[in-house]
Amino acid sequence: MGLNAKPATPTHLWIVGVLSLLWNLFGCYDYLMSELSPASYFASMGMNAASAA
């Protein structure tokens, strides 16, 4: 091993990082859809008008 060699990033770090990114992207999608077109988004999620209000 040379003086400038870096240790490899552990695989579990990448797995946790990707899962965290996907989780947060779904939250962003959910927020944007509920703000931009709430009626159609809530209807697609199986909610009726009374439960969406």
Please, could you describe this protein's structure?
- The protein is an all-alpha fold and 53 residues long.
- The protein has a domain at 28-53.
- It is built from three helices and no strands.
- It has helices spanning 11-36, 38-44, 49-52.
- α1 crosses α2 (38-44).
- The longest helix has 26 residues, at 11-36.
- The termini are far apart.
- The mean pLDDT is 88.
Which properties best describe this structure?
single chain, 53 residues, mainly alpha, 3 helices
Number of strand segments: 0
Q: Calculate the terminal CA-CA distance, rounded to whole Å.
A: 63 Å
- The helical percent reads 55-70%
Content of β-strand: under 5%
Largest sheet: none
* Low-confidence parts: none
Number of helices: 3
Q: Give the class from helix and strand content and strand pairing.
A: mainly alpha
Supply Rg: 20 Å
Average predicted local confidence, pLDDT: 88
Anisotropy-based shape: rod-shaped
Pattern of helices and strands: HHH
Topology:
Layout: H1 11-36, H2 38-44, H3 49-52
Briefly, what is this?
The chain has 53 residues and is mainly alpha-helical. The protein is built from three helices and no strands.
